[in-house]
Design brief:
The structure is a single chain. It contains 16 helices and twelve strands. The protein has 491 residues and is α+β, with helices and mostly antiparallel strands. Among the domains are: 39-197, no CATH class; 284-366, Serine Threonine Protein Phosphatase 5, Tetratricopeptide repeat (Alpha Horseshoe), CATH 1.25.40.10; 386-469, Alpha Horseshoe (Serine Threonine Protein Phosphatase 5, Tetratricopeptide repeat). A hairpin with a 3-residue loop joins strand 1 and strand 2. The longest helix has 23 residues, at 300-322. The protein is globular and about 75 Å long. The model has no long low-confidence stretch (mean pLDDT 90).
Length: 491
């Protein structure tokens, strides 16, 4: 079944998993299998005044809608492009007196679109909104209570002159949002800023070791034509060679968890038991639980003790980070690493989590040499665990490369930046803002490396002079959030 620009994929029914997507032709790593605009999308409640409601870019100065005073846009082009979807919302917010929550706003946008176009197949969609999974029957008591609250709030917001929908259909829409909402990120891909429904993407089944990845593209603000200027979309990209007839899979969760933890998370959030090869055979679990090898192998009790200490420390770290006590975070990390290092192996996830936090926070505090050491160890561990073309691996390698560069370790810094660039070319593509930033860094570090190789003494002299004249670029403040996960699940 193919439709409008979706000729390269086919919907098929898989045993035990329902519908899935299958490739109709061969794809190579980095190929865009399809790009899909959102059926409907909204900005998170907490970010409505700092994120454009059309393209989801974060901007310093935004234009506010003069009528409802709620929606914000980058510029007039984004505002005009939004009007079809914002028109009903605008008058409903004015009538209601305030904007409702993101879930209510998204459900309303979906139902206004159905009012305009009907609930059948939309242009370029392989399935209709009616056919998307809602899993309402699998909801627990707490989820059912939330659903009833959402439906009541929706009915208060929904204007009486608009098409009226039955309670069952409204509940179906909220179920679809709960199970299929896709996380939208800002232009750097570092912060989750909204949620959208992409019916074609919803058909891709999960695999912990997938052959595809999804990247959010915010459009091209240099383009004059509004179609390109504002067209935010998701892109499904191939991670390795895919043959015609192969199922297309994506990962709904971060791989850097034990198979049992991933399965629990998938069951809780998406109501299915993962039967992928990595979960069934518990592949890589041994690496993620590795202990120090050698003659003085630690006892099981010692390992258990250190893992418990690591879990307790991670909780303390989260609290200190929330309060912005970064020096306290560094102390907690150093103390924990002292206990971990004689006991845990270099790929143990508890060690890697502490190394990741330590390198990020130390970079922010401009203690680059110590940060670089931790970042290198973190990347060495990640490279043994993650898929070689994993987006989160690419971002971690990039961060490590920048840290080494700031520390004056130009050879290692350039090598890591090149490695990150090779990964992100596949996962994000050459035109993504992150890849473009990385290309600039790659050229700059290459130039510095040549200078370093020609005359090491002169390189350090020039670097010292440059740092005196120009304050070194401060790393972004460490975030308490993990990288945005693929699908948005209301916690």
């Amino acid at each position: 079944m193919t439709k409008g620009g979706m000729e390269s994929v086919e919907v098929f029914t898989t045993e035990g998993k329902g519908r899935g997507l299958k490739a109709q032709k061969e794809f190579l790593p980095g190929d865009v299998i399809f790009a899909e605009p959102a059926y409907a999308a909204v900005v998170f409640d907490s970010l409505t005044h700092v994120i454009c409601h059309t393209c989801f870019k974060r901007q310093e100065r935004l234009h506010r809608c003069g009528q409802c005073k709620f929606a914000y846009y980058c510029d007039r082009t984004c505002q005009r492009a939004a009007w079809l979807n914002h028109k009903n919302e605008c008058s409903a917010i004015k009538r209601h007196g305030k904007a409702p929550t993101e879930n209510i706003r998204l459900a309303a946008r979906i139902l206004w679109k159905i009012e305009r176009e009907g609930s059948g197949l939309s242009e370029g969609c392989l399935v209709s909104i009616d056919e998307l999974q809602n899993h309402v029957d699998s909801f627990g008591e707490e989820e059912k209570k939330e659903l009833r609250t959402d439906v009541e709030s929706f009915l208060e917001f929904w204007p009486p002159h608009c098409q009226q929908f039955g309670m069952q259909f409204i509940s179906h829409i909220f179920g679809v949002i709960s199970c299929n909402g896709f996380t939208l990120s800002d232009q750097r891909g570092l912060q989750a800023v909204g949620v959208g429904i992409f019916p074609n993407l919803c058909q891709a089944n999960h695999d912990c070791w997938p052959n595809c990845t999804v990247v959010f593209n915010n459009g091209n603000h240099e383009a004059v034509r509004s179609m390109f200027h504002t067209q935010m979309r998701i892109e499904l990209r191939a991670l390795n060679k895919i043959s015609p007839g192969d199922e297309l899979t994506v990962s709904y969760v971060d791989f850097l968890n034990l198979s049992e933890e991933r399965r629990k998370q998938l069951k809780k959030q998406y109501y299915f038991d993962c039967t992928c090869e990595h979960c069934k055979k518990q592949l890589k679990d041994d690496l993620m639980l590795a202990v120090k090898a050698g003659e003085s192998k630690p006892s099981a009790d010692t390992v258990k003790e250190v893992i418990q200490l690591s879990k307790d420390t991670l909780e303390k770290i989260n609290k200190a980070r929330m309060e912005g006590h970064y020096h306290e975070v560094v102390k907690l990390c150093r103390d924990c690493l002292t206990k971990q290092e004689p006991v845990l192996g270099e790929t143990n996830i508890y060690l890697l989590r502490i190394l990741s936090i330590a390198s990020e926070v130390l970079s922010y505090l401009q203690m680059f040499e110590e940060a670089a050491d931790y970042a290198k160890r973190m990347v060495d561990g990640y490279l043994k665990i993650y898929h070689p073309n994993n987006a989160q691996l690419g971002m971690a390698v990039m961060r490590a490369g920048v840290t080494h560069w700031h520390a004056g370790l130009i050879e290692a810094g350039h090598g890591l930046i090149c490695k990150a660039y090779a990964i992100l070319l596949i996962t994000h593509g050459p035109s993504h803002p992150i890849t473009k930033d990385l290309e600039v860094m790659r050229v700059q570090t290459e130039m510095e490396l040549r200078m370093f190789q020609q005359n090491e003494f002169m390189y350090y002299k020039m670097r010292e002079a440059a740092l005196k004249n120009q304050k070194i670029q401060v790393m972004p403040e460490p975030s308490n959030e993990n990288a945005p996960s693929l699908f948005h699940k209301k916690e």
